[in-house]
DNA sequence: CGTGTGTTTATAAACAATGTC
DNA sequence: GCGACATTGTTTATAAACACA
């Protein structure tokens, strides 16, 4: 029995095979200082918490506490103190801390507004609540990274993990001047410009490969336009403008990859202008999470584990559902679940859908920026089939409840228990081998059960523990975002998060804060 | 304006990048004879037709004639005579000839029978009506190939085109002895066994790479089982058994490709055994055209163009619709059609759907074996959405009628003509930017219009010329097959075909014999 | 005929989950 | 149980073949 492999976070993204291109280890320039003794864990071990810090227990996770920090507080001190507190308490006490700023940080309405500037992505990188986080990052970055391995030019894991944050840091402090006069002089299967890399450090950093996939960058590009459509050439240009790596460093084949991604992913669809002369690319609205570069970035900073505190700064955007039944506790690991398609996992856990109740589909707030998946492809036709309930939500591989590990489908409908392994006859009504009537949760009529997990193979066990919403159209979201940090003293990780209190799709086994409606238990965030 | 690129025939398949593997040009062994003078075009230029040959005009194509040939006739002579006839008549006269055997050849019911042998594919390669064609091929093959380039080891285009037929020839004369005791000793990213190639010519030929894609081979494998399901390992074994190239020659990475294809293509779905211990792969029934190795193969023989007759032998399986309104004439080339997704093209033209009216879904006859596409992926949700007519059949790129090249959508519904380029608001009913109410053709209630081409961009022109069937489920097919050849004297090509008189999906600009119900105008085939 | 655009397949690889020893 | 390793599954990147405007 296998579960579907968990989708890797973009933070842990695979090393991109494109040339690291002999950049002289540009990641190293900020860590010039050799080991000094700035480890917050040691020096702040018995430190008292600054004034105004409020600590409350997590509503459902016993090992987690929520820490509300005033703006005036020294985050480094707080982190150090919480780290010490967590370590002192050991495994019995709280070892995960969700750090939230007291001011609420409710500027999230600016995401993906339908009437936004035609080009607004790159200039707003630091316009969100990420300013504070960048302060954290800067301070961390300025700290001496002790125990760091000798800089390896081949992009080792440490370099790789450092790349993202530095790439982000440069992105947030630099402006881009586009160079549209540049032409592509080479064939796509030829080699890169083979530039000399005596450019300035900033330019050099800009020429580092961004940590985003082609699919993500295409979404950034298209969503940067108010019209949400771009020609291929415009996509090229947008990417070259915002990620100079592709203009300056990458082999010409990256354009081939862009075209490949446009064709491959069903979320990208091609339209034709009224006169039929121009074809341009859009994103399926039902699949568009309106990712833009300014809201979607992630950083990882892994400091030396040898210095007793490995500080890992992630950023994620976590959505908390409102107006929906709060799901029952998410099992950290469902025992003996058959390996599912990752797409199915994400369709509920990690891939919340925008709320199409909004008249402007693009006013929804992007949720879960940990990946940039093609949710249309993943969810397939299930988005469209509320009107044919007996054929919706058929999935490839069943999901079993954790309470039925290897048993023979105890809670399945009896009509489906029979004749396992048989080919399902293709009748008029039911069309798929694995398509059986879904088990509907008692959701109200307005909130039709979604059943993303409710159709199983005849031999599977219904997964009744999940809250099931019939369709994203039935949900509403407010688009409120909160900035937060998660400090896990068990593995000495510090994760930067954005909490979307609109709705949530967290399937993170590291800290089970999914489905928390912050606005309900933290008054100052209401 | 661009049409979607026509899907390449598998006959013209791209060169497979896998190692041609230093095989000593095994293609050459049959063409040992140097140029003799066997060109039928010259010698048979004024040849009289043998007795019993009946020539009739094609019902719709003025440049095409249908030639019914008795079994006793010498096909070579007939081809030569027809070639000469076509050339003599020039472009005014008929230059395409559809050659059919007079005996009807109605053995098509054996395709894809639900109760077929568990393993029946490889032993029936010559069991169809292909026997005669193989005779042709053999005779052609035995002919000296004059003007052939010196054998190039690197797999030039001529070698490549010759490979298919020879591969087929060996397949049809050899039996396979599986060697299941063989293990995979290498990592997948390592190099092939680096065998010595002193094996016999037959084995050597068997070690040539088959001309089928991974997707096709997986379909062959899974469909060879009565249960229509296989574990990954079984798929490996089936392929190694039937295509020894992968067992003996290919790099271990081919298994990675198999897994990649299984995951990538939505037509392959993974199920789990009742106890959840085993997962196995199936084909979505609605996407399964039941391709098996014995029914699906194609050969191409390109003889020397220098010898005045380039004989190209293809085999295709062409389906002719019955019980459906005969579509209006297929335009050979629709002027100014916007480039469509190939999937959309094939969904009507080249990708006929099996008739799910059959109680056994797998009793349908595979149609159009020129490719082995993932029709589920291509058709997406459209198969399932007969119950929500206002949102079905939305396509990415519109199709315009040939009569409206650059005009501003004259025949569109007026509600859709307005506000081009605007983002479609995502209302409750309509979900997609390009999703407008389809224009329904006046198909009968039993044969609901299929509308594969009837949803367009608001700026497009409805493509009313196409016959539109609501769903494959509404169609019925008899599974009758006829063997035929198509001789095109304009380009000196001879195409071997199988005509499925059940229904058709031919979008071949080379000879417009789509939608011909042979049983209606050739009495001996009724 | 060359270029740009679009589609598809092949191949390698990163990575995750799980099974096996 | 644990760790090393193999198997299975998913996803992304890259190259390329090919079609076609
Ligand atoms: Mg696409
Ligand atoms: Mg699949």
TrEMBL record, chains A, B:
Question: Which residue ranges does the record annotate as region Disordered?
Answer: 1-57, 383-418
Cited InterPro entries:
FH_FOXM1, Fork_head_dom, FOXM1, TF_fork_head_CS_1, TF_fork_head_CS_2, WH-like_DNA-bd_sf, WH_DNA-bd_sf
Q: Which stretches are tagged as biased composition: Basic residues?
A: 1-16
Q: What are the annotated GO cellular component locations?
A: nucleus
Q: Annotated DNA-binding ranges? A: 209-287
- Comp. bias intervals (Basic and acidic residues): 383-394
A Pfam family for this UniProt protein?
Answer: Forkhead
A GO molecular function annotation here is: RNA polymerase II transcription regulatory region sequence-specific DNA binding
Q: Which UniProt keywords apply?
A: Activator, Cell cycle, DNA damage, DNA repair, DNA-binding, Nucleus, Transcription, Transcription regulation
Q: Which PROSITE patterns match?
A: FORK_HEAD_1, FORK_HEAD_2, FORK_HEAD_3
Any GO BP annotation:
regulation of transcription by RNA polymerase II
Q: Does the keyword DNA repair apply?
A: yes
Locations of Polar residues compositional bias? 18-31
From which domain of life does this come? Eukaryota
Could you tell me what this protein is called? Forkhead box protein M1
